[in-house]
Amino acid sequence: MNRIVLFFVVLSLAFTACKSKKELAQSPYTTDPTTEQKVFTVPAKETREQPAVKAEPVAKTEAPVSMRKEQVSFTRQEDKVQNETNNFFVILGSFSQLDNAKNYRETLLNQGFTPIVLHSETGYYRVCVNSYQHEGDARTRVAQIRQAYPEYSDVWLLIKD
């Protein structure tokens, strides 16, 4: 009998001792969750006839042209003869393997470009589609390529050091 009474006492203590007496923290920035939230509406503005405004076309800004200054050498002698006086090269591809650069050159030939392969001081083979003596001409060609061939939007300029 004592055991049964002791069991009920321990059981009742276990249930009453585990009750949480936590209250919600009161702060001037918190609200009572039991109160209903207020909903505000914004009154509609009066609609007056406004004169039609002619939308001006937004000037299209060109993406900046990446430029690098490197020492380069030509992989073919005939390319060197034709382009050695030029200092600005329009680059469409850069490869660490000469075979990959030559394969890309063939792809560009099929698309109507006249690419040449340059060997950079960094060890990369740069596939160039045009070369110029003046930077303005090279930038114009970059813009033309970006507009006509969106897949070559990452075209950049190499400046011969």
For the record, give the distance between the C-alpha atoms at the N and C termini, rounded to a whole number.
Answer: 103 Å
Order of helices and strands: HEEHEHEEHE
What is the annotated CATH architecture of the domain at 67-160? 2-Layer Sandwich
Q: Characterize the largest beta sheet: strand count, sense, and whether it forms a barrel.
A: 6 strands, mixed
Query: Could you name the CATH topology of the domain at 67-160?
Result: Alpha-Beta Plaits
Helix content: 25-40%
The secondary structure category is alpha+beta
Cross-sheet strand order for the largest sheet: 1-6-3-5-4-2
CA-based gyration radius: 37 Å
Low-pLDDT parts are: none
How much of the sequence lies in strands comes to: 15-25%
- By CATH reckoning, the class of the domain at 67-160 would read Alpha Beta
Describe this structure in words.
The chain contains four helices and six strands. It is an alpha+beta fold and 161 residues long. The mean pLDDT is 82. A six-stranded mixed sheet has the order 1-6-3-5-4-2. It has a domain at 67-160: Alpha-Beta Plaits, CATH 3.30.70.1070. It holds the Pfam family SPOR. One of its GO terms (molecular function) is peptidoglycan binding.
Provide the fold topology:
Elements: H1 2-17, E1 67-70, E2 72-74, H2 77-83, E3 88-95, H3 98-110, E4 116-120, E5 125-132, H4 135-148, E6 156-160
Parallel strand pairs: 1-6
Antiparallel strand pairs: 2-4, 3-5, 3-6, 4-5
Task: Looking at this protein, list some descriptive labels.
elongated, single chain, 161 residues, 6-stranded mixed beta sheet, 4 helices, alpha+beta, Alpha-Beta Plaits
